[in-house]
Automatic annotation (TrEMBL):
Alphabetized UniProt keyword annotations: ATP-binding, Nucleotide-binding, Transport
Family statement: Belongs to the ABC transporter superfamily.
Ranges where the ABC transporter domain occurs: 7-248, 329-562
Keyword Transport carried by entry: yes
One Gene Ontology CC term in the entry: ATP-binding cassette (ABC) transporter complex
Region Disordered: start-end pairs: 289-322
GO MF annotations in UniProt: ATP binding; ATP hydrolysis activity; ATPase-coupled transmembrane transporter activity
Record protein name field: ABC transporter ATP-binding protein
Cross-referenced InterPro entries: AAA+_ATPase, ABC_transporter-like_ATP-bd, ABC_transporter-like_CS, ABC_transpr_CbiO/EcfA_su, ECF_ABC_transporter_ATP-bd, P-loop_NTPase
Pfam families assigned: ABC_tran
CDD domains listed in its UniProt record: ABC_cobalt_CbiO_domain1
Amino acid sequence: MPHVPLLELDRVSIRHEGAERATPVDVSFEVARGEVVLILGPSGCGKSTLTLALDGLVPHAVPAALEGTVRIAGLDTREHPVGVLSEHVGMVFQDPDAQIVTGTVLDEVCFAPENQLVEASEVLERAERALKLVGLWDRRAENPDTLSGGGRQRLAIACALAMSAPVLVLDEPTANLDPAGIDEVYAVLRELASDRDHAVVLVEHNLDAAVDLVDRVIVLDADGRLVIDGPARETLRDRADELVALGVWLPVSTLAALRLRDAGVVLEPLPLSPAELAAALDAQPSLPAPLSASSPVRSTALSPRPTLATGGQTGTATGGHAVAGEHAIRARALSVRRGGRRGPVVIEGVDLEVARADFLAIVGTNGAGKTSLLQALAGVIPAPPGTVDVLGVDPARCDAGERARRIGFVFQNPEHQFIAPTVAEELAQSLQLHGAGDVEPRVGAMLRRFGLEALRDQHPFLLSGGQKRRLSVGTALIAGAPVLALDEPTFGQDRARASELLDMLRTLNDDGTTVLVVTHDLQLVADYASHIAVMGDGRLLGVGPAGEVLAGPLIEQSGLRHPPLARATRGLQRHPDWHTVTRMSQLPVSSKGDS
Ligand SMILES: Nc1ncnc2c1ncn2[C@@H]1O[C@H](COP(=O)(O)OP(=O)(O)OP(=O)(O)O)[C@@H](O)[C@H]1O
Ligand SMILES: Nc1ncnc2c1ncn2[C@@H]1O[C@H](COP(=O)(O)OP(=O)(O)OP(=O)(O)O)[C@@H](O)[C@H]1O
């Protein structure tokens, strides 16, 4: 039999209806059985769009013009319906909510194979296997809406696995997962890849997780053209500078090594993992002193701090600009139910004080209650009266306008907050809600800042994942509220955009804005936060200055893992400069990579 690739793209360009230009443009590649392919490229270059062509949603379901040819298992996607094509390709979308259609976790996983008329007993067998693999079997009777963000992501992966297709396409599958969840997903992918019978195509910003698994990387530039198609490890090493210039992520150990190289310390070969970085650093007798001086990291988080309070009190811990005792947010014995009065208690007995100008990261495993805590502190979900105080008012007792003047909020899923028909109006409405003047120039400045000028008249729902996220952060920032609460602000961002966004938050924070972020990215926490609150099972397990929490046992006790660079440099902790290395995932934003 002639060799038939599982996927075959020949000069593929895709233009969304209403979009000015095609992204991707003129892309050709093949994927064979046994391959694990990673697609990289800056935000908006067409990665998600490309994945939609890999199971026939483009051109059949998504209004977009397809040029060129896509063949799945030899079938031209133009000539075969999605139902037939989906027997060959399982998909996990960037937004897991986009694919949830039924009322229970189990029904959801059975839905697609049932539609493919798979025998009932086999459907159940596949569903059980898939749900056990992602750790959701015990929750099979629950409504998918009651799962946390990470829970819904696991469910989407289980659904794709239950289809038993030879190709699995995953768009940012681990963006909302805790370390255990990421390990589980990659263990499943590794198993699939090891039988050499499946192929996996991944869009993933978390290269630290992916680097051991992928064989090959395909890189698109900002225009959506294929610029690199090569073996994974060699490409990440040999073309690291090119990738940095494009603004895409590299493993944080690689980024740290590039920073060290700028300071005159050359590590050969370029490390791709914490273990490789550790080995390379071990061989270095000393690190250059100027590194600490030139590091953009604020020293506050590393300077001696009040001891970590594990009873849920911040004690006297304050941010760089805070006056002792002056709080931006205070919660006292905060308990919250979700899903109505009979719903489960998801936050219990939280006492927390966030000082003005703190940069607080709320971390914890999936379902720990991070989002619920952030939303209760911001008044997005009701907290019992008298338990929360934001700059002197109880968010439960004030109207939306008054709340918005105090606290800007960014949801985990940006679509939840869009209300206007265009990107520019979305920003303008946010300003008007605050009764602010100078609307047009401020909207223009924010659009430029977030690289959204060309999309000012686009409908917010039609943006790429990263663009949506930037718009949602923009609507929260534009009004200049003194407190910002952001749920996974860098989710789905390329490296250049993520650094830019975090640097902007840091500038605001330096100017006195109190910043609260929920995130799974502990490297980000190590690089930016002044304080960390660790949640577990609806309770506050501890809170304190970032340096102390990261150095202490709480991170691992709560089921998280230390950031990659901290792990890589643990053996170096005796070295006076070790901490500068642990905070080196931030590279300056390259002007070339600015898309
Ligand atoms: N509307 C709801 N009804 C019932 N339970 C809910 C509801 N929303 C969330 N929960 C439950 O509350 C718990 C905490 O959820 P939350 O979203 O706050 O966690 P999280 O730490 O932000 O998780 P993740 O990292 O996965 O986003 C979870 O067990 C979740 O299943
Ligand atoms: N439904 C749509 N209608 C019109 N334009 C769209 C639509 N979806 C995406 N686009 C545009 O197409 C381009 C490619 O989007 P896509 O989501 O494929 O990018 P991406 O590389 O996955 O980005 P990200 O990393 O930000 O998720 C973007 O400029 C986006 O604005």
